[in-house]
Amino acid sequence: MLILTRKLGENIRIGDQVKITVLDIKGGQVKLGIDAPPHIAVHREEIYERIREENRRASNVTPRLLREVAGALRTNKKPRRPREGS
Amino acid sequence: MRIRTPLWGTLEVADDQLVHLPEGLVGFEDFHRFVLVDVAEYHPFLWLLSTENPSVGFAVAEPRYFREGTYPVTLSATDESHLELAAGDTLAIFVIIAIDAEQCVTANLRGPIVLNTRNRIAKQIIAFGTSLSLREPIRPGLAAPPVSAVEPAVSGA
Questions:
Q1: Strand pairing of B46-50 and B18-20?
Q2: Does A83 touch chain B if contact means CB atoms closer than 8 Å?
């Protein structure tokens, strides 16, 4: 891994199209500004983690459970709501 | 194309049921070839079955069962290139379903599967938007089949 030290307001260039600027440093947080063309997707790492976790959860659904739940929905039972915070 | 499955025996699969995920799903990058199994008893859901490992499958559905109105999915130029999107292509969008121990049905609206219906290439994309939930509950009432013609009243009774 390449490690660079940057001061407030300084930049990092990745290729000729991506520029990352250190905008603010406060406590344990760094605010970064990212200039990138539209074909480069920029996401926080956490969203990948959360989608991976959700895919893993979804992979636990079995055809048998799905058939049971779909049957209950078709008979127009009120769908159960997830508990708060889930 | 025929595939053997543990649950349904040998399935005859039409070309328009194939789904090719060149990058796999996030966390399931090793599985690329799927079929959409459309079984009446699963409606309104479909079963996205791996043809590489038939014990791997996901329940998917159209987003309208979880979200009213428009579903703001924006493709990046990279997404478009992965899907080999060309003028005139039609995209289908599916959301992946999770069901918890209490049988609450939710869909991941942040990570939909976008399918190019022309070449059957699909990709799980990351949808922007703070209003999109990873666990959006199913909308009530929609899963029920449309009410068929009202029974004619018995005349002269």
A1: unpaired
A2: yes
Q: Which of B11, B25, B56, B81 to mutate to test the interface with A (most CBs of A within 10 A)?
A: B25
Q: Quote ipTM for the complex.
A: 0.86
Interface of B with A in 18-37 (CB under 8 A): 25-28
Alpha-carbon distance of A16 to A10, in angstroms, equals: 16
Which residue intervals of chain B are DSSP H helices? Answer: 77-82
* Domain carrying residue B98: 2-137
What is the full per-residue pLDDT of chain B (157 aa) written as tens digits? 888 887 788 888 888 999 999 999 999 999 999 999 998 899 999 999 999 998 899 999 999 999 988 888 888 888 999 999 999 999 999 999 999 988 899 999 999 999 999 999 999 999 877 679 999 999 887 655 544 444 444 444 3
- The answer to whether the Cα torsion of A59, A63, A65, A67 is positive or negative is positive
Residue B155 lies in a domain: no
Question: For residue B15, what is the domain's CATH number?
Answer: 2.30.290.10
Q: Are A66 and B137 within 8 A, CB to CB?
A: no
Q: Which of A62, A73, A83 is the best mutation test for B, with the most CBs of B within 10 A?
A: A73
How far apart, in whole angstroms, are the C-alpha atoms of residue B40 and residue B58? 16
How many domains are there within chain B? 1
Whether B75 has its CB under 8 Å from any CB of chain A: the answer is no
The reply to whether B149 falls in a domain is no
For residue B147, tell me if it sits in a domain: no
